[in-house]
Design brief:
homodimer, 277 residues, globular, Cobalt-precorrin-4 Transmethylase, domain 1, 18% strand, five-stranded parallel β-sheet, 12 strands, 10 helices, alpha/beta, Methyltransferase, Cobalt-precorrin-4 Transmethylase, Domain 2
Chain lengths: 277, 277
């Protein structure tokens, strides 16, 4: 059996009881280490699980999946993923390879940023996912529902030069921060204004920045876009939500996280123009 | 401290280790019992946690929240929610009441249908949430991204007569099934066609029915809308996805769940007209 086990978002104890039991009984346990990161590292997980983990980077999962699946028809293999196992296409690919090889699989779900983001009080029903590759994709900025932008993650990526030369030298991991994303959005706003093109957001659009959701030191701030461009939410991973039409209860929740006590005081909630404060 | 603890979707062991530790240390533990259900009941949870659970129905949460929060400034109270705690607006309300009463709160996340739905292989990025109140809302049917419709849940609801007479007599719980939702959609398709109005779906639109996601006996079927109107996925809870533009990898995954071996064979994946097979 191939078990795809979600680890949740925060620390070692965010695994489910069911997931932990699976890890303890499997003959090999892989840790997927490129679509997301936990606030704790591999070593902390190994100590807590009492198991050695095999790091599975993008190369291994995409090019050496057979090694991960080896023997999984007669023994149990676990593949651990931060968040929920079905956040990234690559893991569908692993499932398909397993099924084609006659290997059964089971998914053990957990929280992911897709649902945990609700902790800021915005209803998931109104959340659309934005461009995963940075915040520069202007196409998405005309939507009126809340827009969730994941900050860009670059782990084990090669520079263009090293890629062309076939050298397996990797850049240090980089994680986009909320203030960097907000700064890029402000640039788009300014560029559009210069070109006199319409855009649904402005410097005053209410946004929410979230960091390390689910971890003990998670940080949430709500404020105008230009305020978020100046905030420092600490270590990765960061997410940014551009709010759309806000329900009064959503406004009340956002006020809990206001960058400044009065920054969301004037927020109106009466009509669809409420995404500026 | 008020702890809002997600229970995940399947059985007793879908709670996180962190969540289980919280339940064991709290002085009172409430089980929210109206926005969703687990495949196991209150008694199974009580036995597994080794704790008595206080059932919190809609009336209690909406009208007697002070009782839930009583003493939570000096002791620990847990509020358990199937899935993730922030799936329903009501729980934002509880958080706001806590904060206003000077009570700290902490959220312990878990899988919810919003992210676990990815197990059918459709990327969440393309998923929009449809009408929660049944599938009859025609407004949403013109979208082209995948549309997730939760089947209607009616728990502890009064009949109109009992409501008007102020009698606290409740109807038996009802859960809409995938085939009922598909049947309602077919009716909309037929009505629209009679009125010669445009609609983005037809009898041949590829849909996915899911039941008891995350539980050991979860069921997933993929097929044309008219095929799903004839399927029986067993007990609640059910969800239905109307697919939009499909990525080739999504098609491969859906074929794993085809209602009939050949029902998705002819599915094309080359352009945005791919949502008919």
């Amino acid at each position: 059996m191939l078990y795809l086990v979600g680890l949740g978002l925060g620390g070692v104890k965010d695994i489910t009881v069911k997931g932990l039991e699976v890890i303890k009984k499997c003959s090999r346990v892989y840790l997927e280490a490129y679509t997301s990161i936990l606030t704790v590292g591999k070593q902390a997980l190994e100590e807590y699980y009492g198991r050695e983990l095999i790091l599975a980077d993008r190369e291994m999962v995409e090019q050496d999946a057979d090694e991960i699946l080896r023997g999984a028809d007669v023994t149990d293999v676990a593949f651990l993923v931060v968040g929920d196992p079905f956040g990234a296409t690559t893991h569908s690919d692993l499932v398909l390879r397993a099924v084609n090889a006659g290997i059964k699989y089971q998914v053990i779900h957990n929280a992911s940023i897709m649902n945990a983001i609700g902790c800021c009080g915005l209803q998931e029903a109104g959340l659309s996912q934005g461009p995963s590759k940075g915040a520069r994709n202007e196409m998405c900025l005309l939507k009126l529902s809340h827009l969730l932008c994941f900050s860009d993650i670059k782990v084990k990526e090669q520079s263009m030069e090293n890629l062309l030369r076939g050298r397996k030298i990797y850049e240090p991991p980089r994680y986009m921060s909320v203030n960097q994303a907000a700064e890029q959005l402000l640039e788009i706003v300014r560029n559009r204004r210069e070109r006199e093109e319409e855009l649904a957001i402005s410097e005053d659009t209410v946004c929410v920045g979230l960091a390390r959701v689910g971890a003990d030191d998670q940080a949430i701030v709500a404020g105008k876009l230009q305020q978020l461009a100046c905030c420092d939410l600490g270590g990765p991973l960061h997410s940014l939500i551009i709010t759309g039409h806000l329900h009064p209860l959503e406004v009340d929740m956002l006020r809990l996280f206001a960058t400044q006590p009065d920054s969301l005081q004037s927020l109106r909630t009466t009509d669809s123009s409420t995404y500026t404060s």
